Every structure is written in structure tokens, then in C-alpha cells.
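EI: anyone free to look at a 476-residue chain?
SC: sure, send it
EI:
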Amino acid sequence: MWSPRLAAALVLPALATPLATPVFAAGRPDTITRFAGTAGLAQLTADAQGGLVAADPSGDRVVRIAPDGAVTVVAAGPEAGLDEPEGVAVGGDGTVYVSDARHRVAMITPDGRTRTVAGNGVAGAPVPGPALASPLGAPAGLAMDREGNLFIADDGAVLRVSPSGTLSVAAETTDSRTVAVDSLGNLYVSGPGCSIERIAADGVRSAYAGSGCGHPTPGPARESRLDAIEHLSVDDRDNLVLATDNGVAIVAPDGTLTLRGEGVRGEGVRGEGVRGEGVRGEGVRGEGVRGEGVRGRSAVASLTGAVFVGGPDGVARIGPATPSAPRDLRITPRDRSLELSFRAPLDPGADPVIGYQVSLDGAQTWQPLATEPDGDRLTAAVPRLDNGVQYAVLVSARNTGGVSPGSVILPAVPGAAFLAVTGPDVAVLGWAGLFAVLVGTGLVAAGAAEPSCRPYRVRRLWRRRVLPWSGLAGSG
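SC: here you go
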């Protein structure tokens, strides 16, 4: 029989949602480091794996740069139909789009196949209609919206190519060579006099940033001067990233401008836009590196919030030296122990992750954590714990630069019965935990033999009409 006592007793064992208390209030300060030595890159864009995709016109190729800086070739040379590629964008399915000197825009599928999606190879004014039949002037910057529309900055206009292959003029511009689009479908282009215009989805234009030419100043973007704009991009939080001829600036959705890397020190970045210890170039000035001078042809923020600047002699990274937090922590209670499973930080920081640590008291104390790879996850065991005691568990990563913020905090009770997962099945109730609850409510006599069975999902018990699903805490 169902009873209020049983419903109340199940609240604690079924608890599996992260605690709301934030872990580590302090931010991760920026540093500037050399990220990749690939020279001559034009446009950069972020991919869904936390890495970059870049056009390399001098090598007639498109490359992918992994989060650890490893470079692989996506497509290259005449066999891929690439001739001095410049603009690059990545679709939601991983397809790469690239503009080049053939007056065409091509797509490269995840399996490596290449085909033209816009342009007939003839230089000229674009003609609305089938994208493959239209001339293109000088296609440069590319951007992709969430509906799969491709935007092309092309000789005084921004062109839109729909998923069905229809070309139209999205906006006239003052010869903007770059375009960006946010999650609401607003377009951003460089305007006259070192400014940025926003073009809403309904076509309404407005001044978005820049009051004239000069070095940017933090504060309202419309009131700040801007250096000459080389490239625009939008990150996954709709921040507009500006690569100028003398620095990197970020404009938040509320219109506030900040400078990334200003005044921080860096090392070993070469080329136009970088000057540091024993390295020549221009842009990053001072002993070490000053971030307001990071200069390049393109800048993009990755999913981790780090900003990458590509120039003629490599890619600089402006971002925290330490890793981001481990992700997707899951806990399986065992007899006097906990089994942990989590994903590695999306951003390893300036150096590779070299280890992990775990806290059982909500980040008050820490101990080393030995991990083993398990597909795209890491697993670890925390032994010698007390059954029936609730622990506040979180993990963090470390590299040579320091320790990451902690993961979310999850409560865990060894010998009890819940598993932290995402989705509707947020609780797993094992027979041992259910037995303890039934004893606590008086439905089973204390001292009875404890069953030893595999855990059953709470939803499964509900389907067997053992428990009503609506009465369980954390049922999702």
C-alpha cells in the first residue's frame, strides 16, 4: 500500500539534482599563448567539439585545429576544388562551407566530399534565384544561422543561400568583407567609419557599435571608437567578437564592449599581431605580451569562451591558463564506495590536463582521483566511505597552470540508491536502498535479510505498480 510516510521517505534517496550553490566564485584570468603554428590563416570559426576550422589561402586548404592545437587537413588542393579559400563556416551537422577565389562557395561534408553550393564560377553581380546559376563578385566572410541559411559577404552585399539552394540579397552593405549572425537571425556587418551595423531579421538596420575610428574603450559599444574591423563572429552566447587591426573586442548582447586580454602577459606567439619574448611582429606589445595589441585577420570565441586570433604566422589563444570544469558528472553508489563517471573539460586551458581531484565535502577539501578512460568519458572509484552518509561530490581538473573550477555538486550516499543522469530518468533506486526506506517506514521489519539484486529504475518500479511515479521527488 502507498502511504504518505513512504512518499516522504523516498524524497532523500531519490535526490539527484545538482545543488544550487555555485562552486568557485573567482574567475579564470586570461593569458595569451601560442595555440597553433599554422601560418597564413584567413577566417576562423569554432566547431561543436571546442576546436576551430580555418581557411588557409596560402596552402589552398581548409584545416581543423583540435582543442589541444593538433592540426588536421579537412580538404586541400585542386582535387578538392579549392583555390585560395578565405571564408569558412560550419553547419550544425559538421558540414564545412568555404569561399574561395573561383567566385564560388563550396561545401565539404563530414565524410570529405566537396561540391559547390553557390556561384557559377563567373565574376559578376549576384542574381537572385538558383544559387548555382548566379555569378558572385568576391565572396569572402561566411556565416551560418540555426535554420541552415548560409550568409555570404560579397562585394557590397550580404547574400543568403537557403537550405534549398535559393540565393537572395539579405542586405546591402558598404563593402563589408565579413558577416556574422546571432541566434535570433540578426546580421552584423562592418559599416562606414569604423562602425558595426545590425540588420534585424525583418530588415531594420541600426547602429550597433562604433562612434568613429580609434582605440576601443570598455563600456557602451555605441559610444566607443573602433579600430579598422577585420572580422566579425558570434559565439554561442550571442556575444559579438571583433578582430580589429589593433586588438580583440567583445560586444555582449546588452551592448557592453569589453577588451579581451588587455594588459595580460603571454609567450611565444609569432607573426603579425604578436610580439613577445624573443618574437617579432606587431600588435602584442611589451615584454611578454599585451593583449590589446593582439592583431590578426580573424578572431573567434570557442564554446569554452577562449578567444582565438588567426594571423599570417599562427593562432594565438586569449583565455584562462587553467582548464574549464569537468562535465556531466554521474555517480553510482556502491557498498562503502562511489563510482564516478564524467567527461573531460571542454577547454583544457593553455596546457593539457594532467590529472583530476575529487571533493566529498562541497569543495572544502580535495584528494587525488585516479581515472580510467571509458569511451568519451572518464571513470573513477572513491573507496573507504561510510554507508548511509550523504557526501557532496564534485571533481576538478588540473594542468601545469593550475586547477579548474569544480563540476556541479551532486549529493551521493554510499549503499543508497540514486544515479545522477540527464533526462527524465534522474533517479535509479536499487533494492538495497528501497529496503532501507521500507525499514525506515515500518513496512518491513528491521533485521530482515537485505536483498542483493541489480538496481531498478524508479520508473521501472512505477511501471510494475510498486510505486506511483507522480509521488517521487526528482522524477523530471
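EI: The two ends are 24 Å apart (CA to CA).
SC: 👍
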